[in-house]
Amino acid sequence: MKPHNVVVVVPTYNNPLSIQAVISDILAHGYKVIVADDGSDVHVSSLYENENTDNIYFVRHENNRGKGEAILSAAKKAKALGYTHILSMDGDGQHLASQAHKLIEVIEDETIIIGARNFDLDNVPLGSKFGRWFSNMWACWDTGYTITDSLSGYRIYPVSIIDLPIETHRFDWEMEVLVRHADAGKKIKEVVIECYYPLAEERVSHFRKFGDTVAIVWVHIQILPFKWLKWLNPFSK
Fold first, then answer.
1. Where are the alpha helices (DSSP H) in 14-66?
2. What is the pTM of this model?
């Protein structure tokens, strides 16, 4: 798979302190980028009105629709531009463009590749580590794959994700896309990456620890009964 078939995608919502640095990091490593502005108060494209944007594409939602919808809009744009895969990076500065090659080097057709973050850092809260463990338990159960960082937003997706029957829209979308992709008989794999985990006072996150965690668990609760029926059906493959 040639690298030019992959374009970096950055879903962003009100990350004014980090988004330009993230985009600069991506461009400095030789990648093109689609910025999916999910209803930010300040249009991200307006920050580049007097700059060369040959390697930047913008898609925008006028109202905030959720991270999943932003990634899907970017995937549709990528497909229209002729790309076969997208590499998603968050707009808060945690993800490093220097790690992208690790995912790109192992790219396969119709495979989701997760960049599993190194959480062995002093400033990663215990709550975040527990949340990752809890989410991973459900992800492994529902996909049949060993997944160690189901909450990582650093991923390569084939653009075929736009055809999956996904009903969620926000952070829970990142879990449902794994489950639906696996249900379609397609592969998931991981590679270990390094990331920058800022101090608490530096973080800009729209993840609601309680509400979004409940939403992620609800994805599994809704899907599991159908999986049990499938497992009990002697005629299912």
1. 19-28
2. 0.81
